Amino acid sequence: MSRLSEAFATDEPAFIPYLAVGDPDIASSKQYVEALVEGGADCVELGLPFSEPIAEGQTIQQAIVRSLSGGITPEAYFEFVDDLDVDVPLVCMTYYNLIFRYGADSGTAAGEGDHTAPGPRPFVKRAAEVGIDGFVVPDLPAEEAGDLRDACDEFDLGLVFIVAPTTTDDRLDTIREQVSGYVYVQARMGVTGAQADVSDRTAESLARIANWDVPKAVGFGISTGDHAARVVSAGADGIIVGSALVDIVADGVENDRATADVADDLREKARELKDGALRGARESPEAQGE
Amino acid sequence: MSSDSSTDGKFGEYGGQYVPEALMPAIEELRDAYERYVLENEDGFVDEFRERLRDFGGRPTPLQHAEHLSDRYGREIYLKREDLLHGGAHKLNNALGQVLLAKYMGKDRIVAETGAGQHGTATAMAAAHLDMPCEIYMGETDIGRQRPNVFRMRINGADLNPVTAGRGTLKEAISETMRDWATNVDDTHYVVGSVVGPAPFPEMVREFQSVISEEVRNQAQERFGTLPDSVVACAGGGSNTMGAFARFVDSEARSASGRSSGRTPREDDDEVNLLAVEAGGSSLAVDEEEGVAPNSASLSTGGQGVLHGARTKVLQDEWGQIVESHSVSAGLDYAGVGPELAYLVDEDRVSAVNVGDDAALEAFHRLSQEEGIIPALESSHALAYVEEVLGPDAEADADGADELGDRIVINLSGRGDKDLETVIEETDKRSIPNAPDMSEFAGGL
Ligand SMILES: Cc1ncc(COP(=O)(O)O)c(C=O)c1O
């Protein structure tokens, strides 16, 4: 069993938070991740900020801007992961160009160096060294993922794919062949961002992949314990929450709050979400039927 | 436009479909519609497109012999007058094609990004013409420097959404339009404005724009009984470029690079030299510390990367973060370029060259004075390259003089009315030797 699936090893639904590493700086973000794990996270998606985050809504776009202006680089990210002292699986969430370019000999200053890209292997190798257990790459559909899939197999890392409400049955088959770790069920159309309610399309999407043998984690728009409960009772094995947590970080930056206070709020929000997920599991038709 | 082979949307290693899963079904649907309507003329799509290009767009555009430039350079200079296309730029060829295709597909909303505002304007016009609601995303910096186009879009009934992220130029506008599309993909078509983005956009936009080279071929044969020695076009994303080149790229080079047009290749195609002129901006170096490239020369200086759905040549820092590009011309100000163009440059079929801001401004004034045509700042780059190689200040035997040959077609991709404010402001800042003195009228603009 891969390290990633371990997050789902118990009967409990998994809580998977997302934060952009380096938002607003490396030291704070280390405390934030630790707080989320203390609050019940079973796995953490650690965002490596990319300058063109096309799948991200305003909240996470701004986190990425804060982190990039704080000077985060892929290497600083890897060092962060290496230093991190938490005992849950870690997923690297980033965009393909950073994976594709890592280890290229030079930038693009006119006439200098080698302009070809090394491909994903050096990035995956380094990620494996520092303790990353898998990847989510929102701009990499299964069709383009061959090279990354090979590198992940070589270093025994998981590769998570997203299933969207629009994904056709044919595409589901393609994704099923390639996915490992867990499948990321996108709860609604659009980009990331906290929502006032969870979409009805979630249950439908879950039903379509009910017989897959990888765990199913639902994300996009979950922001409260009640949402978490509803999604889990609809059949999810886990919930992924990003923007609702990033909102807390953003509030800390805007109001100049102490890192420890922000970490407290994150820990508390994590508990709310995890508790919601647990409640959902008790209320699920399956649990009720037993 | 008939197809004779299928394609995986790749041009060598370039191209592909690097987009969120939520968009993949829409992209598959688009590929299917493109193949049926555009390549196979199902339901008479191509006939209707051609007719509308003629009646609404004003095609064919002339291939004009530029007498004074020809005297200046001692070569025969021809201008392909895309500036005379309705809307004032080549952009309508693509916008009309895609809005019409969206209609055939049963979509009922159009979104588009725009840089210079020319594509947004063309899309707004096509949408009004074909009665489709239309929303345009445009960076705030570009809104500031292309105001006439902002008004034109609004007047044609389009909604305009300012994009504040980053430097507020084309790159950010594309990202934001992709987000809209990912949210509303069921009923919305994204009219991508250049030969960029995920497959099938690069190929499809090239096909819609290839009417330029199709006409140039015929007009050249009529005018001088043979093909031109060279075709010179500016390159931002590269749609006027690919449009001006497409029918001179033989289908063998093309077969490794997506679909052939179905046209029987001619032996002499290969002898037409194709030059893509990028914006050299103020310098070719990248400032990694600041994350900016003071140029938009991705073909000349960029590395392989993945941006906005395609693998191509990209301006980026050592880690693969996309850097902010720069050009005095908003339409060239982009950190990426079409994947097919990147491929044709690697294959040595297209030469990538570049000229800086000052040379482009000078060329703008030169064409205005010598030929009575005010060119777009984008197109001024193509003019400036010819001046650099053949003008009075060029070194004798300058590199490239042979490549241009005796009969040179310059693709005049657009007219410069939209650029007047920028030109007056920038000319003032820089001391452009051939600029008229406007100081007497300053402040009145
Ligand atoms: C007149 C004109 N020429 C050229 C361009 C650059 O686009 P492309 O490289 O796709 O032709 C633009 C873009 O706005 C334009 O308005």
Automatic annotation (TrEMBL), chain A:
Its EC number is 4.2.1.20. SUPFAM superfamilies: Ribulose-phoshate binding barrel. One of its GO terms (cellular component) is cytosol. It holds the Pfam family Trp_syntA. Keywords: Amino-acid biosynthesis, Aromatic amino acid biosynthesis, Lyase, Tryptophan biosynthesis. It catalyses: (1S,2R)-1-C-(indol-3-yl)glycerol 3-phosphate + L-serine = D-glyceraldehyde 3-phosphate + L-tryptophan + H2O. Pathway: Amino-acid biosynthesis; L-tryptophan biosynthesis; L-tryptophan from chorismate: step 5/5. Signal peptide: none annotated. The active site is at E45 (proton acceptor), E56 (proton acceptor). The alpha subunit is responsible for the aldol cleavage of indoleglycerol phosphate to indole and glyceraldehyde 3-phosphate. Tetramer of two alpha and two beta chains. This is Tryptophan synthase alpha chain. It comes from Halolamina pelagica. The gene is trpA.
Automatic annotation (TrEMBL), chain B:
InterPro entries: Trp_synth_b_CS (IPR006653), Trp_synth_beta (IPR006654), Trp_synth_beta/beta-like (IPR023026), TrpB-like_PALP (IPR001926), TrpB-like_PALP_sf (IPR036052). SUPFAM superfamilies: Tryptophan synthase beta subunit-like PLP-dependent enzymes. GO terms for cellular component: cytoplasm. GO terms for molecular function: tryptophan synthase activity. Residues 57-413 form the Tryptophan synthase beta chain-like PALP domain. The beta subunit is responsible for the synthesis of L-tryptophan from indole and L-serine. HAMAP family: Trp_synth_beta. This is Tryptophan synthase beta chain. It comes from Halolamina pelagica. The lineage of its organism: Archaea, Methanobacteriati, Methanobacteriota, Stenosarchaea group, Halobacteria. The gene is trpB.
